[in-house]
Amino acid sequence: MKKIISWAVALCMGVIFYSCDLDQKVFSSLTNSNFPQTVEDIDALVIGMYANFKANSGGVYDGSNDGWTMPIYASGDGWWAYSEFTSDELVHQSNQIYKFNWSGAWNTYGTYSISRNITRCTFILDQLEKVGGLPEAAKAQKIAEVKTLRAWLMFCFYDLYGPVSCVLEPEGLSNVVYTPRPTKEVYFNRMVSDLQEALPYLYDKTNGTENWGRVNKGIATMLLMKAYMNDHQYDKALPYAESMKTMGYTLSEDYKDVFSDEMNDETVWAVPGGELAGNEYAYYLFPPNCITFGKNFEHKACPTHRWGGYLMPWDFYDTYDKADARLEVIADSYKDANGTLYTRPGGGGASDDRIQQGAIPVKYLMAPEKYASGNMHIVAFRYADVLLSLAEIENELNGPTDKALNYLKQITDRVGVTHTIPADIQTSKEKFREFLLMERGRELFMEGWRRQDLIRFGKYIEFAKKRGCTAAKDHMVLFPIPPKVITESDGVIEQNPGY
Question: If we measure between CA atoms, which residue out of 120, 22, 124 comes closest to residue 69?
């Protein structure tokens, strides 16, 4: 199969995608006539699950909800958006709810609704056991692929809501009523066991191969690493982080290259780019009157459609050293068609209601036509995260050792800011944590991990209050289960504590 950049099949299988013109079977409503009967049918079901990880907001139509769902990496909503906009590294210019102005009535159903595909993966696994004519090696690989996709979905929803209601055993598939949420132990252990069982049978490093876009050993390994780290089981996270060093991934010499070359050796997996994989990422970044951006590196790549809205707060921007090479993908200014320069207040140029709130976190320096068509990849997993995680794991297990510091320096050396590491960073675990948390933000901004990092470090609510989110409460480390779910289940699905 060619690399999954077109997603043409993925958008037609497993979910209903109304704008797709291909005459395909639709497996969102299974009947005796379309029941999967062949190897090809099974693969179509598997590929369909990748639609859950798209980047196009509202790209999948949910007939049962009579509305658009929000895939994991949707730029306008979903796991990625909730992870970023409730953190200190990204602000949504107009949506005030992200400033912790939500309650138990916050309706995130467009995102929550795709959690049903955890159960759909269970169905596909059951069909894999029943379908004939599939060689054992191919069958093992397909089972591993589906288990990884199921665990990945479980991971994302666990991060947002805690355990969500789902069917994890085939015998429960005939039960069409709501079931109680699994316990944390049952949910977490299944997520982990799915990944562990899948690892030996997954594709190796898929960069530059026809399997680019499919899950691979790197994704499964990083999910295991992150699951254990988030649960503060650093000893169990360590072997997975260490094993990533032997998989062929390396740091790119130039930070910018990671976001211009889709299949570089640092990227473990990205939401693939392609004409049929359009996303709205760039449209949210640039102000409507932007023509060129970046006072110091003018880049003529503003897309035709410009909505604005996503900004890096100046307080976070100012944590970067002026010599930091990562500033080359964060625009501190822009120009309009008349050549007027817009800058932050006090920056020497004109100002508008956007640039006053923050810088433009461009991240992806691409040609205008790629921005205009949404034909761009979105980096989700990369090796730099592994090195920073190894530094964190070493610090938590053994203190701020030279080994931990050397992992950290690989990141700071690349962007020319090793001189910013405090001289006393090795005097305590807490000193090391403090710098590492901010360095993770500076390195991985807009990649969806910030909220998770802040929660793991115990700083999510504290940082929210410091930046003026007076509505932030301790229980808001989890989002409320959508009211629609609570109501339709007649209380079988219990709300998260505090709401």
Answer: 120
Per-residue pLDDT averaged across 302-312, rounded? 81
Identify whether 203 is part of a domain. no
Residue 246: both structure tokens together? 């032997």
**Whole-number Å distance between alpha carbons of 282 and 288:** 12
**Cα angle for residues 307, 87, 358 (degrees, 5° grid):** 45
User: Which one, of 375, 165, 176, 175, lies nearest residue 276 by Cα?
Assistant: 375
- Given 373, 402, 422, the domain boundary residue is 373
Residues 424 and 366 in one domain: no
Position 102 in a domain:
no
**What confidence score (pLDDT) does residue 6 get?**
41
Q: How many domains in the chain?
A: 2
Q: Which of 166, 173, 164, 165 is nearest to 127 (CA)?
A: 173
Distances, alpha carbon 438 to alpha carbons 67, 260, 267, 435, 459, in Å: 38, 24, 21, 5, 11
Taking all residues of the chain, what is their mean pLDDT, rounded to a whole number? 88
Residues 28 and 44: their CA atoms lie apart, in Å, by 12
Q: Which domain holds residue 308?
A: 281-373
DSSP string, 123-178: HHHHHHHH-SS--HHHHHHHHHHHHHHHHHHHHHHHHHHSS-----SGGGTT--S-
Average pLDDT (323-333) is: 94
* Cβ neighbours for 364, distance < 8 A, ≥ 6 positions apart: 259, 260, 281, 282, 329, 376
- The answer to whether residue 12 sits within a structural domain is no
446 and 471 co-located in one domain: yes
CA–CA separation, 122 and 115 (whole Å): 12
* Assigned token pair, 364: 């992806």
Residue 314, in any domain of the structure: yes
Residues 356, 104: Cα–Cα separation, whole Å: 32
Cα three-residue angle 152-86-154, rounded to 5 degrees: 15
337-344 long-range contacts, CB within 8 A, separation 24+: 337/289, 337/291, 341/295, 342/287, 343/295, 344/314
Measured CA to CA, the distance from residue 376 to residue 270 in angstroms comes to 10
Contact in structure between 171 and 229 (CB atoms under 8 Å): no
pLDDT higher for 250 or 286? Answer: 250
If DSSP codes are grouped into helix, strand and coil, which group holds residue 203?
strand
Most confident of 5-9, 92-96, 115-119, 272-276: 115-119
**Would residue 359 be called left, alpha or beta, if left means φ above 0 and alpha means ψ between -120 and 50 degrees?**
beta
Return the beta strands (E) in 220-318 as ranges: 267-271, 292-293, 310-313
